[in-house]
Amino acid sequence: MSQATVNTNTKIKMTNISKIFETEELETHALRSIDLEINAGDYVSISGPSGCGKSTLLSILGLLDMPSDGEFYIEGVNVTDLSLDEAAEIRNSKIGFIFQSFNLIDELSVFDNVALPLRYSKEKMSEQAIKTRVNECLALVAMSHRVSHKPNQLSGGQQQRIAIARALVANPAILLVDEPTGNLDSKSGDQVMDVLEKLNENGTTICMVTHDPRYADMARTQLKLLDGAILTTPDIVERVKAAV
Amino acid sequence: MNYIMYLIKQAWQSLTKTPGFIVSVVTTMGFTLGALLCVLTLAYVMLMKPLPYPEQEKLYRVVQSQIMQNGQVDNNLFTYPGLIHFYKNQTHFSEAALIHYDDNILTSLPKQPSLKMGYVTPKWFSLLDIPMARGRQFEQTEQLDSHNPVAVISFDTWQNEFNGDEDILSQKIAFSGVSFSIVGVISDTFIEPEIEQRGLKTQVWLPWDYNLDTSAKESWGNIIPLAAFVGKLNSQQSIKQIEQEITPAENQIWRDNVGGVTFLNDWTLQMKLHSFNSLVLGGSHQVIYFLLAGVFGLVIIASANIANLFISRIAQQQHSLAIRAAMGANSKQLFNALLVESGILMLLSICIALVIAVCGFYILQHYLSDVLPRVAELRLNRFSFLSAIIIVMSLAYFFAKVSAKTIKYKTLNLTLQSSGKGNSAQVPKKTRQVLVITQVAIAATLIFVNANLFKHALDSLNEDAGFETHNLSYLNLVYSGMNWPEYDAFSPIMTDIKAQIISRPEVEMISHSSSPLSRFWQWPINDLVRKERYTIFIKSIADDYFELLGQPLIDGENFSTADIKDGNNVWIINEALANHLSPNASAVGINVNPGNDQVYSIKGVVKNIKQPNQIDQPFRVYGPSDLSQRSLLIKFKSNQALSREQLVEVIQQSHKSMVIEKYESLSQTQDAGLFTQKATAITTAVLASLTFLLASLGLYGVMSYSTQIRRFEIGTRLAIGAKRKTLILMIIKDNSQSVLIGLVFSILIMLGLVISFNNQLERYVNWQLLPTVILTFSLIVLITLIACYLPLRNLINRSVIHALRAGH
């Protein structure tokens, strides 16, 4: 992991990232030459039609998948060619995930679900420290009263708030959010979006994939993907230029 | 029809995506069903198939028993004149024949082989409808007292001894100084009824008249072993009535003829009829039921394991099944698709099973023909194929049903909109735990038992016999002339033959002794000196015997030349008898009076030896041999030997009428004697490996299934930042409790076995079992670790998105 000479304010920097899915018969270019930079405190939304590469881009951003080409830095650390375990370490310390289907573990209580990233952390924390931090995060999403419930005892909106608390617990560099309201009714969806907005106001960097234009508009930077490439917006063009 | 073709095509495509699954199912079920088909066919042949003779249900052997004064049966044998009398005078059988089994030496061939003989009256051939490959059966010309010197030979004898000579019917063969013209060769399709000895294959048939020397034919006081009256019953009376009718008549004539023998006072005869079927089957019912139980057990274990694999596969297919359900497939249609898949797999398995069964028949016919009846008739028959079809259909249905039961049809569509609430179809956690526990308990027990039997067999194989066998051969001679000479007449003959053999350059040493592997004569003695009864096992040897065999003399001294020459009453005994006679001091010099007015002095003590299959150490005694003894031990020089033909030539130079009754290398005899141990070693090794394989597959199936349904959760943990090692440890930890409980159960089962069969198992239970226990448990732990890791490998060694996507 080499340090790159980038702005210390830059959380994410992608240069010329592409992703090709190969089968015996054909190659699919899921992403083509993506250049992207996300700074501290940004609220970025990525939207576009189905199959445009949104989820693939988010997977690569979250080190869940590897790009076929290009360079990728998180907080100045080159994460393009990490081993599986190195990638796990970065995901644990720098990235917070929020999935469309919440991905809470049914057997674990709300508390243990939220505490999970801390237990996988390289730096071992004391039980007391874990408890304090988990409670802090649950308070942030207003779920302190459901600490010992099991996920399947909660509503969809509540589950997603727990998922947000879990994403925040390890103080990640960025929150990656995949269609957070996709499995929720509009009221619960709005509540979840409120929570995200508040987090961003308090300084959390967020990158969100959504196909809902209403929620995409809530982000301050809106990227549109089409056929694996970013459609330029004035704002992003300026930023990319500045970075180069 | 089109729909069925479509289903088959779909099923095949779906199966080929998981070749590992096909291989696991087809090999496991192929081997297991192969064993099942083999045993089922054996059971059919033994218990249900009629014997291959015309009107076989009417074929009986008449057995005559001599009953002592106290009512106990002394023997079940005819006297020679009694047998002939019954044969000539009986009225209940429409056709009857006599047969006498024996061994004899074919002196007209250079090799002088010892052959299995059958001396028969002509009806033996028509009763059994014996098919001929060449020439004719015995006819009226060979009936009793015709003394027509002709012979019929078996197909194998024709091939092996005469190389299938086309001109066989013009050849002659000589036995005991008589030359016989070959008039027929029996077809290789003939199956000999095993009414006397299991697995016996008669090689040459001669007319009944040539079976014994004339003196025995007149004696009403003597009995003849290996002779039988057989016949086709032609009577409306019951077997009991017939027995009651023939007994007094036979008894009367016998009593009339043995009246002067005081020893036989108050003895009576009893006649009994035994059907061919009951004689052939003997006491084999138990063996076949035991085999059936064993093989059904194996099928149950294998099926349970394969069911696990099917369940695990359904877990993988959950998503595609949900889509089919969403498209309108009803539960019956889903079941049909599963049925076609399991049907294809079972068809493939049964094809392998049929091949395995045929291999099983071959093994049974070559190695167990003297243990199990009628194995010569084993081949795939209509029963085997019918069983195969029923097995395929029922197992295909069973596996499809098990798979279908796993699908909760009503919740399938929820799978598509799963919100991570864990509402996809699952086998409950408890069921999975029970599966792991039973799997481990059964596997550990079976591996442990088989590993122990294997070790036991291996120990017997590797055990030191206490004597050399290398380059040593045993030779026993008999006289083949018409009139057997006096015993002492053999002394000069044997001395000369010995001299001829030792003069051969291949021979290093020769001893006028019998083989350490041949029988020691049992002698129950009444020790008048020590006033106690015990049984000794004695054999006659020369003074060079112990040196030749490398059997150490541990006390006293060897026989002197004078002992041999004068036939002194001196013994050399083994350690076991020495310890019995004189536990605290030397046994040398002790006198034994076995109750025959002779006193034998102990001259030396030798180390114990172990014959194959010997369990306890008998009291062995070696006495000095005399020069008339017809046994020799030959030690050849390194890498040299004399063939049977060469030896025949040497002996013939000395004496024309002396022929080889037995000539075999000690190493080969010992190997043959250890056949049971070898068979046990191989069988248990195969069974242990098979159990290990089945247990591995079963555990893999359950754990693979558990991992499949946790795929989504594992993906989430990976996304949060769990490292691979952490997840491997988590899965191991989650399963370790069930595995431990399984191991505890296996210990309980084993303790149960030890308590229930304490008497039989006492010899085996000791601290030496500890390494096997450790080995068994290590193997189970190893299987568990592998079964934990392999299914996880696909998830943790790829990009995390793979696990997460599949989770949806």
TrEMBL record, chain A:
<dbReference type="InterPro" id="IPR003593">
    <property type="entry name" value="AAA+_ATPase"/>
</dbReference>
<dbReference type="GO" id="GO:0022857">
    <property type="term" value="F:transmembrane transporter activity"/>
</dbReference>
<dbReference type="InterPro" id="IPR017871">
    <property type="entry name" value="ABC_transporter-like_CS"/>
</dbReference>
<feature type="domain" description="ABC transporter">
    <location>
        <begin position="12"/>
        <end position="244"/>
    </location>
</feature>
<keyword id="KW-0547">Nucleotide-binding</keyword>
<keyword id="KW-0067">ATP-binding</keyword>
<protein>
    <submittedName>
        <fullName>Putative ABC transport system ATP-binding protein</fullName>
    </submittedName>
</protein>
<dbReference type="Pfam" id="PF00005">
    <property type="entry name" value="ABC_tran"/>
</dbReference>
<dbReference type="InterPro" id="IPR003439">
    <property type="entry name" value="ABC_transporter-like_ATP-bd"/>
</dbReference>
<dbReference type="InterPro" id="IPR017911">
    <property type="entry name" value="MacB-like_ATP-bd"/>
</dbReference>
<keyword id="KW-0813">Transport</keyword>
<dbReference type="InterPro" id="IPR027417">
    <property type="entry name" value="P-loop_NTPase"/>
</dbReference>
<dbReference type="GO" id="GO:0016887">
    <property type="term" value="F:ATP hydrolysis activity"/>
</dbReference>
<comment type="similarity">
    <text>Belongs to the ABC transporter superfamily. Macrolide exporter (TC 3.A.1.122) family.</text>
</comment>
<dbReference type="GO" id="GO:1902495">
    <property type="term" value="C:transmembrane transporter complex"/>
</dbReference>
<dbReference type="GO" id="GO:0005524">
    <property type="term" value="F:ATP binding"/>
</dbReference>
TrEMBL record, chain B:
<keyword id="KW-0812">Transmembrane</keyword>
<dbReference type="InterPro" id="IPR050250">
    <property type="entry name" value="Macrolide_Exporter_MacB"/>
</dbReference>
<dbReference type="InterPro" id="IPR003838">
    <property type="entry name" value="ABC3_permease_C"/>
</dbReference>
<comment type="similarity">
    <text>Belongs to the ABC-4 integral membrane protein family.</text>
</comment>
<feature type="transmembrane region" description="Helical">
    <location>
        <begin position="434"/>
        <end position="454"/>
    </location>
</feature>
<keyword id="KW-1003">Cell membrane</keyword>
<keyword id="KW-1133">Transmembrane helix</keyword>
<feature type="transmembrane region" description="Helical">
    <location>
        <begin position="334"/>
        <end position="363"/>
    </location>
</feature>
<feature type="domain" description="ABC3 transporter permease C-terminal">
    <location>
        <begin position="686"/>
        <end position="799"/>
    </location>
</feature>
<keyword id="KW-0472">Membrane</keyword>
<dbReference type="GO" id="GO:0022857">
    <property type="term" value="F:transmembrane transporter activity"/>
</dbReference>
<dbReference type="InterPro" id="IPR025857">
    <property type="entry name" value="MacB_PCD"/>
</dbReference>
<feature type="domain" description="MacB-like periplasmic core">
    <location>
        <begin position="24"/>
        <end position="248"/>
    </location>
</feature>
<feature type="domain" description="MacB-like periplasmic core">
    <location>
        <begin position="477"/>
        <end position="640"/>
    </location>
</feature>
<protein>
    <submittedName>
        <fullName>Duplicated orphan permease</fullName>
    </submittedName>
</protein>
<dbReference type="Pfam" id="PF02687">
    <property type="entry name" value="FtsX"/>
</dbReference>
<feature type="transmembrane region" description="Helical">
    <location>
        <begin position="21"/>
        <end position="47"/>
    </location>
</feature>
<feature type="transmembrane region" description="Helical">
    <location>
        <begin position="679"/>
        <end position="702"/>
    </location>
</feature>
<feature type="transmembrane region" description="Helical">
    <location>
        <begin position="739"/>
        <end position="757"/>
    </location>
</feature>
<feature type="transmembrane region" description="Helical">
    <location>
        <begin position="287"/>
        <end position="311"/>
    </location>
</feature>
<dbReference type="Pfam" id="PF12704">
    <property type="entry name" value="MacB_PCD"/>
</dbReference>
<feature type="transmembrane region" description="Helical">
    <location>
        <begin position="769"/>
        <end position="792"/>
    </location>
</feature>
